[in-house]
Structure formats: structure tokens, C-alpha cells
């Protein structure tokens, strides 16, 4: 049989058994403890006749036991469908699409149950024949049906074989998010300490950074915006922070500028990745720039018709429930519109988000960036609505910074601010003021 899929990881765990691997609610787990938990889960799988190639839905959040279960499943060459607490309402749909043969629930107690399903998808056959573990990550579905991306987990693990920096990191992104999995594997492969959190609000996060001397905060622009508005960074000692990485959505220039001012000694780094091929290595031009260099070993990039395409050794096999998004020569069509400056890219928005107004293209992010310059606006979402004459008109959802601000005054302020800065067809024709969040639990902007 081929080398154990996670053999290199487990060797690193064995080399530092007393080192702190994870912390949750003040409880510390060492790498030795993690190995013991993995062994216990393996015994349970043997007893349940859960073998190589089994398709397993794993409901859990980031904690030591869920991580041990995930690693034990991958080492057993199972095919894992992780589902975080925030995605539970879709768990049944994911189980059906993913043909789950076993369901492990670590959210409502601890149960391991067999279903009456026999998984037979062609991608599963490919993984079984290769004796490789699999990982099925579902997209957020913010623009439609959630798509199940099937990965050969050994390909995802390849980039973690090279040791990198050991830094105390907050596990901010979700258990079933490709960015969350990437953070987990990066930290474990470097023998780092992961700080798990039950709360993803600014107060909870800043409290954990202070208490546990967190050095890396992987997050999203919308969270950073919330943190700055709440002023939580001023109430806690965040001097341990060395790196803030951001991704999952477009970073407004105004938010980036405010972050650079608020965290002058911290490196701000834009990350880019997708459910379909994981996270690429990246390098931002500087703390105030949205220009980013992408690539690294195992990745190739090109731009066609203004849209980024990526070819990667870590790319998924394909979707369970959607057509192939790959070109004939193996490039993944990301749908992300970019500008290019030498080796650097700047993201302008998703092709699917573009609003066509009488034949003129409107990128929502461009208008949102300008509106976010207003301190009176906490968040904004630009989207299109059908129009019989123009094809579509630009609409705007606004979240005020001050709950007492009148809707009419806010609309007038936005219109005045945009006048002369963008073409008239880009200025919203309809406005809706809301107090509700405009991002999903995976920090994707909801434009509807």
C-alpha cells in the first residue's frame, strides 16, 4: 500500500508531543493529545467497519476532537464532507448530493451512524482506485445552488510538506470552508498553535488575540470593517499580531486604508483561493495596495478576456452536481475579473456580479468602494434589478453606521458623494436601508 496520506504530519506531531496544538475556551491540547485522539477515532472506525473509500459527512466546528476525527478519516483514506454549525440547515442536502454512507455528528453530542446509501459517483471511484483520501467542499451557494467540489486530499496536502513559519494563529474561518481547512493544515504542518473560537464578533476575537498572544489573524474584509467600526481593537492589547490575512470577498480600498492606519506594525496580506483549488501563495504589493502577486509551486495563472484562470496540481477532480469549469487544457475558469500590472493582479469583481445597464458594464465593487469612503456607511451591497428599457438598473442596500440616521438623509449623502466620481449610469437608482448583515457566514457578499 502507498505511503500513509498523513504520515509526514504525524511524524511532526511525534517530534513535539508536549507542544500546544490547540486552545479552546482555555483548554489546551498538545500534539501528543491530538495523536491519542486520532488513535481513539481510528479504533471507532474499525469497530464501525468504516473503511477506505467510505463517504463520511462530518458535522463539527473547529475543536480538538473534530480536528482529530477529520485527520483520522483522511488517514483511513475516507472521503470526508465537512459541515460546520453555520451550514447545518444544508446538511441534509449536502448528505444527499454527496452520497454520504456514514454521518458523524459532533455538534449534537457524538454519534456515528451508517446510512442506507451506497456512494457510486465516478469521482469517488477515481479516489478509491488511487487509494487516496477525499475531501468534498461545498460552495456557499450565495448565487445559486451549492456545488460540491471533490478533491483528492493528497494533492491538497502536497504544499504543506515544506515546513514554513511557526506562528500562533486564530482559526477564524469555518470548518467546512476551504480557507479554514487551509489554515488548519498550514498550522499543523508547522507545529503551530491554533486558537479556536466560539464567537466571530470583534469583541470575542480581540479578547482571544490579547489573551493567547495570537500572531496571525486570517479573516475577511467585512469582519475587519466591523472591527474598526466597533473600535474593539482599541480596547484590547493586540500588540502580538504580526500578520492579518484577508480574502473571501473584495477588500474596499477605504477599509484597507483604515486597517493600515489602525495596525501600523502588522503585515496586511491579501489571500486568494477558491473552493475548487484551495489557497494560493500570495504577496501584496504593500499594506495599502489591492495589487497582489499570486502563484507558488504547483500553480499557473493566465488572464483571458479580462478573467483570471488558474491551473493547479491541487485542483479538484470536479463537481458532484455541476458541469466542469475547466478549459480543455486544464485551467479553472474562476470568473474573477482582474487588471494586470506585470506580475500583480487587482480584482475588480465577479463576472456573475456585473450589471449590464443599456450595454454598459457596472462592477458592483467599484461603486461599493466609493460608498464605503463615507463614515456614515457601515456596509453596502450593489446589485442589479431587471428593467424593460435598460436591461437592468443599479440598486443599493445600505447599512448605516448610526442606527438613528434617517434613510432619506443617507440616500442623499450617497448620491452627492458619487456625483462626478462615476458615470451617471453607475449611480444607484433604488436604495434600501437595512440593519441586517450583508455577508454570509463564509463572508461572501450577498447582492440581492
Structural Rg? 22 Å
Largest sheet: 7 strands, mixed
Measure the end-to-end span: 51 Å
Instruction: Bin the strand percentage.
Output: 25-35%
Describe this structure in words.
The chain is α/β, with parallel strands linked by helices and 448 residues long. It is 28% helix and 29% strand. It has 12 helices and 26 strands. The chain has helices at 7-15, 31-47, 64-75, 91-98, 122-130, 153-158, 178-189, 202-212, 221-230, 253-262, 364-371, 407-418; strands at 20-24, 27-30, 55-59, 79-83, 102-105, 111-114, 134-138, 148-152, 169-171, 194-196, 216-219, 243-246, 267-270, 272-274, 278-284, 292-295, 299-304, 307-312, 318-319, 332-341, 344-350, 355-357, 360-362, 377-387, 391-400, 430-433. The chain has a 7-stranded mixed beta sheet, sandwiched between helices. A hairpin with a 2-residue loop joins strand 1 (20-24) and strand 2. Helix 9 (221-230) crosses helix 10. The longest helix is centred in the N-terminal third of the chain and has 17 residues, at 31-47. It is globular, with a radius of gyration of 22 Å.
Amino acid at each position: 500500500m502507498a505511503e500513509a496520506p498523513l504520515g509526514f504530519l504525524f511524524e511532526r506531531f511525534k517530534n513535539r508531543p508536549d507542544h500546544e496544538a490547540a486552545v479552546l475556551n482555555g483548554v489546551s491540547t498538545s500534539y501528543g493529545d491530538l495523536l491519542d485522539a486520532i488513535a481513539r477515532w481510528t479504533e471507532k472506525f474499525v469497530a464501525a467497519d468504516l473503511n477506505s473509500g467510505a463517504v463520511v459527512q462530518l458535522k463539527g466546528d473547529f475543536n480538538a476532537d473534530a480536528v482529530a476525527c477529520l485527520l483520522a478519516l483522511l488517514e483511513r483514506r475516507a472521503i470526508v464532507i465537512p459541515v460546520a454549525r453555520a451550514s447545518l440547515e444544508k446538511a441534509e442536502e449536502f448528505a444527499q448530493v454527496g452520497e454520504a454512507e456514514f454521518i458523524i455528528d459532533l455538534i449534537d453530542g457524538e454519534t456515528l451512524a451508517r446510512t442506507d446509501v451506497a456512494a457510486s459517483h465516478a469521482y469517488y471511484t477515481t479516489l478509491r482506485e488511487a487509494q487516496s483520501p477525499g475531501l468534498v467542499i461545498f460552495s456557499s451557494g450565495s448565487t445559486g445552488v451549492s456545488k460540491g467540489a471533490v478533491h483528492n486530499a493528497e494533492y491538497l496536502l502536497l504544499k504543506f510538506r515544506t515546513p514554513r513559519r511557526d506562528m500562533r494563529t486564530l482559526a477564524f474561518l469555518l470548518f467546512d470552508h476551504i480557507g479554514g481547512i487551509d489554515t488548519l493544515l498550514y498550522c499543523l504542518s508547522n507545529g503551530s498553535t491554533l486558537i479556536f473560537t466560539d464567537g466571530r464578533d470583534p469583541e470575542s476575537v480581540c479578547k482571544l488575540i490579547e489573551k493567547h498572544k495570537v500572531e496571525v489573524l486570517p479573516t475577511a474584509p467585512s469582519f475587519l470593517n466591523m472591527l474598526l467600526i466597533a473600535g474593539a481593537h482599541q480596547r484590547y492589547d493586540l500588540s502580538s499580531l504580526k500578520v492579518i490575512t484577508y480574502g473571501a470577498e473584495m477588500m474596499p480600498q477605504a477599509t484597507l486604508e483604515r486597517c493600515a492606519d489602525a495596525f501600523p506594525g502588522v503585515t496586511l496580506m491579501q489571500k486568494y483561493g477558491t473552493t475548487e483549488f484551495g489557497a494560493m501563495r500570495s504577496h501584496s504589493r504593500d499594506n495599502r495596495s489591492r495589487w497582489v502577486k499570486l502563484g507558488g509551486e504547483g500553480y499557473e495563472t493566465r488572464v483571458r478576456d479580462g478573467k483570471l484562470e488558474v491551473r493547479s496540481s491541487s485542483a479538484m477532480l470536479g463537481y458532484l452536481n455541476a458541469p466542469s469549469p475547466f478549459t480543455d487544457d486544464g485551467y479553472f475558469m474562476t470568473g474573477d475579473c482582474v487588471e494586470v500590472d506585470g506580475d500583480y493582479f487587482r480584482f475588480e469583481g465577479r463576472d456573475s456580479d456585473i450589471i449590464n445597464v443599456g450595454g454598459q458594464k457596472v462592477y458592483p465593487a467599484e461603486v461599493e468602494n466609493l460608498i464605503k469612503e463615507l463614515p456614515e456607511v457601515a456596509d453596502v451591497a450593489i446589485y442589479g434589478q431587471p428593467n424593460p428599457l435598460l436591461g437592468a438598473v443599479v440598486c443599493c442596500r445600505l447599512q448605516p453606521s448610526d442606527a438613528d440616521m434617517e434613510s432619506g438623509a443617507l440616500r442623499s449623502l450617497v448620491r452627492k458623494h458619487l456625483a462626478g466620481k462615476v458615470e451617471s449610469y453607475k449611480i444607484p437608482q433604488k436604495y434600501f436601508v437595512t440593519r441586517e448583515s450583508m455577508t454570509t457566514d463564509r463572508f461572501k457578499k450577498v447582492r440581492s
